[in-house]
Every structure is written in C-alpha cells, then in structure tokens.
C-alpha cells in the first residue's frame, strides 16, 4: 500500500542573523528554491507545502506549484516558535481540507546540501520501522 507523505518547507521571513536568509542564493537559486527542487525529486512525497509568513517567499513556491496553505499567523512566525508547532499547524490546515498523511517531512531551506536521495533513504528507513523518527545529523567541526 502506498503511503502518503506531507513535506513541509518551513521558511519564516524574520531571521535575526541574516536578513531574508531563506531567499539568499547559492549559485543562482534561493535556498527555498533548492529545498523545493529536492522535494520535487523525491518520488514518495505526496504533497509539498511551503510554510511561510511572507508573500515574497510564497511567490517562490507558487512559481513551482508549491502552495502555502495560507500565510502563517503572526503567533507562529517569531523566532521562539518551535518546529513542532509549525508542523502541527500545517497538518491542521490539511485536515480542514480532508487531507491526511502517514508521515511528515520537515525540509529546512537552510540545509542546502542535503540530497534528494538522502531524503528518499530516510523515508524508506522510516517505513521499514514506522515507530521511530528519522533525523539527519551531521558533525560540524567548528562554529555553528
């Protein structure tokens, strides 16, 4: 049986460290665009949602047929909001449309070097043992 997977790309506009960090470019593509491209290349993803509080960010998604459910409310758009709250919000928005999923992927735009095949492997690992969460962790030798 095919599993349904929601991919949420969380992209808040109010970064304190780097202005508009989610639309900074690597090469000729914004970080949001790179995340969308990766998600589109993973065969098991049923739906991609760009979770944002910014019209400018939403436009990047719309150009790729990746739609925000609606702009995120202000109480979910500040730097203290947890990813869990954002994912819960997006799942609730989907449920209002009678869309339900077997799994949720959070694909951070600020992880531009993650590969689609790695995401695919994580999905496979999760469904082999769906009682566990799958996370990608990379050692950083210095800095943050």
Architecture overview:
32% of the residues lie in helices and 15% in strands. By secondary structure, it is α/β, with parallel strands linked by helices. A hairpin with a 2-residue loop joins strand 2 (25-26) and strand 3 (29-30). The longest helix has 14 residues, at 83-96. The protein is globular, with a radius of gyration of 15 Å. 26% of the residues are buried.
What percent strand?
A: 5-15%
Mean pLDDT: 89
Distance between the termini: 41 Å
Largest sheet: 3 strands, parallel
- Tell me the total number of β-strands: 5
Helix content: 25-40%
What is the CA-atom radius of gyration, in angstroms?
Answer: 15 Å
Order of helices and strands: EEEHEHHEH
Total of DSSP H or I helical runs spanning 4+ residues: 4
Strand order of the largest sheet: 4-1-5
User: Per the principal axes of the C-alpha atoms, what is the gross shape?
Assistant: globular
Features:
144 residues; globular; 3-stranded parallel sheet; alpha/beta
Question: How does the SSE layout of this entry go?
Answer:
Layout: E1 5-11, E2 25-26, E3 29-30, H1 31-40, E4 47-52, H2 55-63, H3 83-96, E5 103-106, H4 116-128
Parallel strand pairs: 1-4, 1-5
Antiparallel strand pairs: 2-3
Quick gist of this model?
It is built from four helices and five strands; from the N terminus they run E-E-E-H-E-H-H-E-H. The chain is α/β, with parallel strands linked by helices and 144 residues long.
